[in-house]
Hints:
About 40% of the residues lie in helices and about 25% in strands. By secondary structure, the chain is an alpha+beta fold. It folds into 2 domains: about 5-40, no CATH class; about 50-184, GTP Cyclohydrolase I, domain 2 (2-Layer Sandwich), CATH 3.30.1130.10. Helix 1 crosses helix 2. The longest helix has 16 residues, at about 115-130. It is elongated and about 60 Å long. The mean pLDDT is about 95.
Amino acid sequence: MNEELAKNYRAILRGVGEDPEREGLMDTPKRAAKAMQYLCHGYQQSLEQIVNGALFESDNDEMVIVRDIELYSLCEHHLLPFIGKAHVAYIPTGKVLGLSKVARIVDMFARRLQIQENLTRQIADGIAQVTDATGVAVVIEAKHMCMMMRGVEKQNSVMSTSVMLGAFRESYNTRQEFLQLIRG
């Protein structure tokens, strides 16, 4: 646990008018520091570590889709969570990625301070880099606590973002197939 981070959380508690020495808050700075380190552990990871050689020879050149990958991230503007799901597809060119690696790539980028638009792009670019696919598509749907708990306080709003690369950008039919399949 990072002592400097805990010290800063202690200062935040004082800053909002709390007493960090009261019984319920005595260990909160340490717990909050540990939680923040966990929530941002994507900074300590790389694509190479995540994939770890899990690319497998395959003659498949049809779309591979992993739907409903839950994700948890923190918005870089307010440090509040956004929670949702990612749908990821790629069209392989001789190699397929181990199934769990797709979800781990989503997690690696989500566990960084983010905006959803950039997160979507980072996942797509990462999958493209690792697989050398002819196309990659990523759609993320998420609820943002910064919109729900503060500001406009809209409880039912969902933000959707998409990035289409290669065949998904170039071919209307490929893109439509993907979008139909993720609607389930």
